[in-house]
Amino acid sequence: xxxxxxxxxxAMMNKLNRLLPILIxxxxxxxxxxxxxxxxxxxxxxxxxxxxxxxEQNVFKWEHFTYQLPVIKSGVGQLGGVVALHVDEAVLxxxxxxxxxxxxxxxxxxxxxxxxxxxxxxAFFEIEFDAAGIEALEEKTGLRYxxxxxxxxxxxxxxxxxxxxxxxxPNVLEPYIQFxxxxxSPATLSVSTTNSPAETKCYAFVQTNYHNxxxxxxxVAVSExxxxxxxxxxxxxxxxxxxxxxxxxxxxxxxANQNNEQALSYYLIKGKVSNGEYMLPLEITSVSKYGINPxxxxxxxxxxxxx
Length: 307
Prior knowledge:
This protein folds into two domains: about 45-175, hypothetical protein (bacova_03559) (Immunoglobulin-like); about 175-305, hypothetical protein (bacova_03559) (Immunoglobulin-like, Sandwich), CATH 2.60.40. The chain is α+β, with helices and mostly antiparallel strands and about 300 residues long. It has helices at about 1-35, 130-140, 225-235, and strands at about 45-50, 55-60, 65-75, 80-85, 100, 105-110, 115, 120-130, 145-155, 165-175, 175-180, 185, 190, 200-210, 215-220, 245-250, 255, 260-270, 275-285, 290, 300-305. The strands form four sheets. Strands 2, 4, 5, 7, 9 and 10 form a six-stranded mixed beta sheet that branches. It has three helices and 21 strands. The longest helix is centred in the first third of the chain and has 32 residues, at about 1-35.
């Protein structure tokens, strides 16, 4: 054993000395392979306005209408900080005489500063508009108004300048409900006296033009006057579907909270009228909150009774 060591020991040690630098490199590479590669090529955190540039927004005529302007924080999520929103009149110069500056009395930034945590992706500046005041001003002057908002931050890097400005153009609207398919329905409902069930259930969708945050109740009636008006305006002679041939489910006259659209239901009843082509004119007559769109208050449903 001792003789073998003396014979091969020096040669083995020389070989180990030559391999040692290679072994160290291999171990260093193995250690670096255990590091998390997900941070590679990731951009640093920065903030910008989601709706940058020209930003037309519907502003509804109810008290204290509030628009939420989103600010986005992109990147690896390693920084938090404070962002601020202010009005920069100079931005309007980019639009020539297309817009006038909306007077400060007609809007208010409710949250001019927001704090974003490291892991936050977005937040919202709340801006309250005086919809009735804006409408009155536009009617008086004939001008279109806008508010040029600019985002800034002293703690988080900001994106390119064009992404920091949002020119909010308020479009004042009455809040209302309406039929989703107003006017003459494109589809004809058929009832077969031979093959249809005794009652055929049908639907008509009613919708809001705003984000609904209440349980809305409304009423719908069959309007012979609406049919007569349609016939006169279009030179037609559609016949009213007799009352015995349908029934309307009044319990379905609702749009639930957080829903902007919901269907009312009605039934076509077989065997109550002679074969032929008819019209069922539905009209929204009342609603528990806000109003009814005059242009979308009626829906005329063609009905065909056949063998």
